[in-house]
User: Fold this.
Amino acid sequence: MKYMGSKARFAKDLLPIITKDRLPNQAYVEPFAGGMNMIDKVNGIRMANDQHQELMAMWHALIYENWDPPQTISEAKYKHIKYNQSEYPKHLVAYVGFNSFGGKWFAGYRRDKEGKRDYWGEHYRNITKQVPKLEGIILSSQSYLDLDIPDESIIYCDPPYAKTTAYRDGFNHHTFWEWCRQQAQKGHQIFISEYSAPPDFKCIWEKDAKTTFSWHADHLEAKLAVERLFVYAI
Ligand SMILES: C[S@@+](CC[C@H](N)C(=O)[O-])C[C@H]1O[C@@H](n2cnc3c(N)ncnc32)[C@H](O)[C@@H]1O
Assistant:
């Protein structure tokens, strides 16, 4: 699924590192699963959480309720759903809200001036292609701070990045890094995607990446950022 901050293009670099020492039956947990663009490529026991309630209602409907989403939505309907969200089921609100510019929540109806691109068809195909790969996954929708994580799990965190945060709720990065330290001390293997981290975290992978991630970069040239993967150096 096209999703703001998606890790789809880094999955083939990151997952072999993250799952290198995974044991049989060891749980793989993503507290910030978003568009499921990493976890859809992982096997075995998997837990996907995201605080975004509508988004997780959408994944639940697709994976466990056999929901076949609409293949097209008119601009008038998009706007009606955007401004009257409580009148619609959460899963539909998410499906529509995320088919916006840059995979951002209701950031505008996608329209191709030349009429060549079928954005709704692409959205439909991208999402429905993921669904079979997510069978059996355990879903939840709460703050990462409230997650109940099985002992000795692998935890992959892809939180809203510092300085580029454009998600609905404020995100306390200090609290987040402290939580990561605690998870490592509890015996989990924890990996974090970010551009930078406090000095007691070690960078184990990095790659240049063009991004249009910030709200402010929407209409500017893509800027260069370095994607990094960190672990806690206990
Ligand atoms: C960078 S995105 C994850 C993208 C995902 N890895 C992908 O490839 O599609 C970060 C996610 O964190 C979620 N989020 C923000 N604050 C959160 C919190 N306190 N607890 C859980 N999830 C949160 C957002 O809703 C968003 O989906």
Summary: The pocket of S-adenosylmethionine is lined by residues 3, 5-8, 31-32, 34-35, 37-38, 50-52, 143-144, 158-160, 167, 169, 171 (CB under 6 Å).
